[in-house]
Amino acid sequence: MPAHFTPALFTYLRALKANNTREWFQANRDRYAADVEAPMLRFITDLAPHLRAISPAIVVDARRTGGSMYRIHRDTRFSPDKSPYKIHVAAHFKHEQRKKAPSVPGFYLHLGPGDSMGGGGIYHPDMPTLTRIRRGIVEDAGGWARVKKTGMEIEGARLTRAPAGFDTTHEHIDDLRLKDFYGMATFTQAQACADDFLDRYVATCREISPLVAFLTKALGWRW
To answer: Has residue 56 been placed in a domain?
Structure first.
């Protein structure tokens, strides 16, 4: 299979970083469509059967709007940075409960100059969701230990103390202090532009899938 992404994607994003204005974007919209949007949508289309093989509950949607690909436009309402556009392209493959729950586990892909990564988990879940995950760890300590034994690095911000209502001596207390649960692999531009990048990304998703599966089941949803 030929490469989905080419150096033109990264060249465009570097130029966008240097010219982050609506005027420049409109003048270069065709480049965005050809070099960024179309390759990502083709990647999402070809990724779909691979993620379905990992879990049929993960949604992979290749629509231009309302699908798995994030919009290039930034939400600047609450940010001091009023730059209108992101300088990366990203996609999030979420659990099918995404429209019914404020926070759901899933997989993620992010491509940008010097800033490309992929993996999965859950990021900044709301407090009820976070509490359910923590309870899931307590109730299935053995299952969580098996996730940890895979050797993946589970990342996320942590509380400085044990969360309220949880045993400070629990065997997984360090993990109960987490406020996010995710694992990420980094990619070079050469890797992202290689013919085997789809396989590389799928392998990353498979590696992190025990974590995503545990989070999903802790929330009471099918995997």
So the answer is: yes
223 within some domain: no
CB burial string 30-56: b at 16+ within 10 A, e below? ebbeebbbebbbebbeebbebbeebbe
Q: Is there a domain that residue 2 lies in?
A: no
Answer yes or no: is 37 within a domain. Answer: yes
Domain that holds residue 141: 7-218
Q: How many domains does the chain have?
A: 1
Reported pTM: 0.95
| Neighbour-count burial for 161-180, b at 16+ CB within 10 Å, e otherwise | eebeebeeeeebbebbbbee
Answer for the pair 93, 43: CB distance below 8 angstroms, yes or no: no
pLDDT (tens digit per residue) in 161-212: 999 999 999 999 999 999 999 999 999 999 999 999 999 999 999 999 999 9
Do the Cβ atoms of 122 and 133 come closer than 8 Å? yes
